[in-house]
Amino acid sequence: MKLSICIPVYNGADTVGTLVEEIIKDYKNHDIEIVLVNDCSPKDNSAQVCIELAKKYNFVKFIDLRKNSGEHNAVMCALNYCTGDYAAIIDDDLQNPPLEILKLVDEAQKGYDVVFAKYHKKKHNIFRNFGSKINDIFATWLLEKPKNLYLCSFKLISRPVINEIIKYKGPFPYIDGLILRVTRNFSSVFVEHKSRENGKSNYTLGRLVHLWLSMFVNFSIKPMRLIMGLGFFTMIASLILGIYFVIDKILNPQISVGWTSLATLILFFGGLQSLILGFIGEYIGKNYLDQNGTPQYTVKNEYNTDIKQ
């Protein structure tokens, strides 16, 4: 069995070298390849560190992206370049010990297509944990994810599922959404999770919102149905209120009509219309970018990718 270990790299110059050396030490008796994808790290020399690793080890593939595309796009790039029977996706921050991949492999060999990691206690900061919780709620609703399944970035994917996932060529991939579209034959196992020793999480609020929008717009039409339901509810509520105000005015002619209620209604319906148009625009805009041939990623340089593994 050949194992591909896919590592998206973003501002990981201080950690990716240590991670690769740990993998090589832990898996010296295994048939492995390591696929590094630098997502155009802007703050350090991640690319140069990865180049040195690729020069040192011929089983280390390195793809340097020309522009920042996002973690999921970088993972898609790695999956397109990997050749193993299984691909393990692991972050470059050393919070997941590489030896824990074997737990995922052992579980996968029971016949599962995908194995997700799960933690007894996550060592992320409060903001990251909160974002993960919100992501889990949305995924359960939008993607019909089983409630007891935790979608973790640390996972193992079998070759048949990889082959299906990489058929997706759209510019806004969401790996877990693609997995759930391909198979329901998955499992999860507990693994160790370490505290971050270097730097800070690259998941900002903006990146989390971008991830949620990718999930909303690209992998489900439920938000559109929710908006339609909200519009219908608002219409019915407005009709009821209109009838009430007319009857109240007839029964109590002395009631003076104030501008406060009118201003409130105008602001409410104006905001509601803007929200609805925004969602529709998001769907149309992303569909336009997809049809326009926007690439998932653009490669600047690659190393060891032509070596027969």
TrEMBL record:
Query: In what residue span(s) does the Glycosyltransferase 2-like domain sit?
Result: 4-134
Gene3D superfamilies reported for this sequence:
Spore Coat Polysaccharide Biosynthesis Protein SpsA, Chain A
Domain of life the protein comes from? Bacteria
Protein name, UniProt field: Glycosyltransferase family 2 protein
Give the matching Pfam families. Answer: Glycos_transf_2 (PF00535)
Transmembrane region positions?
A: 227-247, 259-280
Could you state one GO biological process linked to this protein? Answer: lipopolysaccharide biosynthetic process
Q: Which organism is it from?
A: Treponema peruense
